[in-house]
Amino acid sequence: MNTTFQDDKPVTSSLLIMGYEVVIGFETHAQLSTQSKIFSRAPTVFGAEPNTQACAVDLALPGTLPVMNKGAVERAIEFGLAVGSHIAERSIFARKNYFYPDLPKGYQISQFEIPVVQGGAVEFYLGDEKKSVRLVRAHLEEDAGKSLHEDFIGQTGIDLNRAGTPLLEIVTEPDMRSTAEAVAYAKELHKIVTWIGICDGNMQEGSFRCDANVSVRKPGAALGTRREIKNLNSFKFMQQAIDYEIRWQIEELEDGRAIEQATVLFNPDTGETRAMRTKEDAADYRYFPDPDLPPLVIAREWVERVRSEMTELPRVMAQRFVTDYGLSDYDATTLTQSREVAAYFEAAAQACGQPKLVGNWIMGEVSRRLNLAEADISACPITPAQLAQLVSRIQDGTISNNAARQVLDVLWSAPEGTVDAVIEAKSLKQMNDTGALEKIVDAVLAANPKNVAEFRAGNAKALNALVGQIMKGSQGKANPQQVNALLLQKLA
Ligand code: ADP
Ligand code: MG
Questions:
Q1: From the CA of 426, how far away is ligand 1's center (Å)?
Q2: CATH code assigned to 434-491
Q3: CA 324 from chain center: how many Å?
Q4: Which of 138, 136, 97 minimizes the C-alpha distance to 115?
Q5: In DSSP terms, which residues pair with 209 in a beta bridge?
Q6: Percentage of the residues of the chain whose pLDDT score is greater than 70
Q7: Which residue, among 242, 285, 272, has the nearest Cα to 111 in the 3D structure?
């Protein structure tokens, strides 16, 4: 394997915690969404009766031979292309030897010295700062079975259904410098694998499992000893676990104790991390090339075919939203958080020709309502066509933003209606009759001499009170811009 170098870059002091710099690297296991196992034709469906879908190959029974699943390789290629990696022309499967009850065959087939995906980077925004986390590699491997701890009978059962399920292990350089950056990286990686459809991303079912390697050091010092937090299966736990681990390591060092390299588990009930075992080194696994599998050879034509069939990537799409629709970089990134949101945005934007307004409504009012309902855009009761219609009615002055929110509320619970019908039924039309508006303005000015005097004396805020009165007088139907203009005209 090539030597990996660390950048010769000074540390930004703003990230220091009690004088320590945090260093984080991730290893993520993404379960590839193939129908059958990585080296056999047994099915990969989640949740089957224990021990009903592991076959002789998955258990490496004598006389069986593994055969590479083309779908798993294709997904690895797709991932590599999505993050700008080199796809190895020739990579090698190796046996990683260890014994554990859920791995009765005594070794896991993985890739060691020559992985299929090499290099690349994951780019994302942390607030409005652009970050890039370099990848070392991504390699194909098989999953092990599962230990089921039946606490109520004090026994542990073994379910081998998961044995041989294809995984892509994605390894980063130790590039992250804060918990927030690590969580943002994990979210971006999750977005990429689900966007290109190589992994269902279901964290609860273990389809996307993150191991966070965490260390701390004084600025400028060599890398500190790391501890690896295993199997973080929600973003919330990830954040809690890394935060706890950082504090724990700093306290140990401050108390004069050295950090020992270890694998730790996060306990969501206590919010603490606890050492599970002192970490094995690669040498402990006695890796050697698997004699049952030939090298994985990937022809360049295959890579090019996969590239030509790949869906538009989030970063590319976000860039297109900036150039085609004039969105800000930030808005474009937000609206490409998932393919569904992006498709919804594009459909509505094209239907009404108001991309910025459509974007604001999706990121604002629509998201807020979806969050409250704990639903995502696929469950949104408002169609893109309806949102486009709503935005058109704001744009052409028929309704105010406030009235549009009311229309949204009505349609949210009765989505079969149309925007125009709701505007009509609730008489939400903005007052565009200047004569009628003028009457209200005059009446309000006459009734509020104090505010008028204050405004004339230079208190700009006094205008707000007057606008409020006029809006009230028009039952919210006056056009606020028009009200403002009229008022300024009359008070000049
Ligand atoms: P191993 O082979 O033992 O798994 P690697 O060198 O492959 O170790 O590193 C595993 C992960 O740990 C990588 O994501 C890497 O970026 C990260 N890592 C390595 N050293 C450190 C460190 N000192 N602090 C934090 N993360 C680290
Ligand atoms: Mg490793």
A1: 61
A2: 1.10.10.410
A3: 24
A4: 138
A5: 29
A6: 97
A7: 285
Q: Where are the domains of the chain?
A: 21-302, 312-425, 434-491
Three-state DSSP at 17 gives: strand
Q: Is there an atom of ligand 1 within 6 Å of 171 CB?
A: yes
pTM, rounded to two decimals: 0.81
The winner for highest mean pLDDT among 117-131, 177-191, 446-460, 469-483 is 177-191
DSSP classification of residue 481 = H
Residue 224 CA, closest ligand 1 atom number = 23
pLDDT of residue 475: 80
Mutation to probe ligand 1, out of 11, 110, 137, 171 (largest number of atoms < 8 A from CB): 171
Q: Give yes or no for residue 449 having a pLDDT over 80.
A: yes
Give tens-digit pLDDT for 77-114.
Answer: 999 999 999 999 999 999 999 999 999 999 999 999 99
DSSP 3-state of 179: helix
Measured in angstroms, how far is the CA atom of residue 5 from the centroid of ligand 1?
12
Closest C-alpha residue for ligand 1 atom 7: 171
Ligand nearest to the CA of 174: 1
- pLDDT (0 to 100) of residue 10: 53
Beta-carbon contacts of residue 73 (< 8 Å; ≥ 6 apart): 116, 140, 296, 298
